[in-house]
């Protein structure tokens, strides 16, 4: 992404700034993606645990495990807690998805800004080269068109 730039080009500081903004936006997207992946993994683990608990609850209730009413109350309370945790985690995942989408949009706009600045900088550099080339050509034409009376001779 790094380009060789002419220090005489007044667009260089903006170009560097735009590049830094794009890099920072890319870092934010990567961080949001990492957080989202971790949260989704946690959600998957919570859901698996809830399924295992539900299966074990059926086995416990089917077996003669003492006072079933007490056991049923505890199991239902624990399952309610797991469902609440799962719901909270799902909310976190949705928030992280939203945050990641915002970060991706920021990255797109930062990259578009960077590309615009690079295009303007390139256009400016090209116009400077063309102006220098025209000036050089004009000077060469002027030197060719010098009349012989301007030639210095020793007398």
Q: List the helices and strands in order.
A: HH
Low-confidence stretches: none
What's the shape? rod-shaped
Calculate the mean pLDDT score and round it.
Answer: 85
Ends distance:
64 Å
Structure write-up:
This protein has 155 residues and is mainly α. The protein has a domain at 12-113. Helix content is 83%, strand content 0%. It contains two helices and no strands. It has helices at residues 12-62, 68-144. Helix 1 (12-62) packs antiparallel against helix 2. The protein is rod-shaped. The chain starts with 11 loop residues before the first helix and ends in an 11-residue tail after the last helix. Residues 15-42 form a coiled coil. This is Flagellar FliJ protein. InterPro entries: Flag_assembly_chemotaxis_eff. It comes from Acidithiobacillus thiooxidans. Keywords: Coiled coil.
Comma- or semicolon-separated keywords:
155 residues, 83% helix, 0% strand
Q: Short summary of the structure?
A:
It comes from Acidithiobacillus thiooxidans (Thiobacillus thiooxidans). 83% of the residues lie in helices and 0% in strands.
């Amino acid at each position: 992404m790094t380009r060789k730039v002419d220090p005489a080009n007044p667009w260089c500081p903006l170009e560097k700034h735009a590049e830094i903004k794009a890099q920072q936006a890319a870092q934010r997207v990567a961080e949001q993606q990492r957080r989202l992946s971790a949260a989704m993994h946690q959600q998957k683990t919570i859901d698996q645990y809830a399924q295992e608990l539900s299966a074990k609850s059926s086995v416990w209730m089917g077996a003669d495990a003492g006072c079933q009413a007490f056991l049923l109350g505890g199991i239902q309370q624990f399952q309610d807690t797991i469902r609440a945790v799962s719901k909270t985690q799902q909310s976190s995942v949705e928030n992280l998805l939203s945050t990641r989408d915002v970060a991706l949009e920021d990255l797109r706009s930062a990259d578009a800004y960077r590309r615009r600045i690079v295009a303007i900088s390139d256009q400016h550099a090209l116009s400077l080269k063309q102006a220098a080339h025209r000036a050089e050509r004009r000077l060469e034409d002027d030197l060719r068109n010098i009349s012989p009376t301007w030639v210095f001779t020793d007398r």
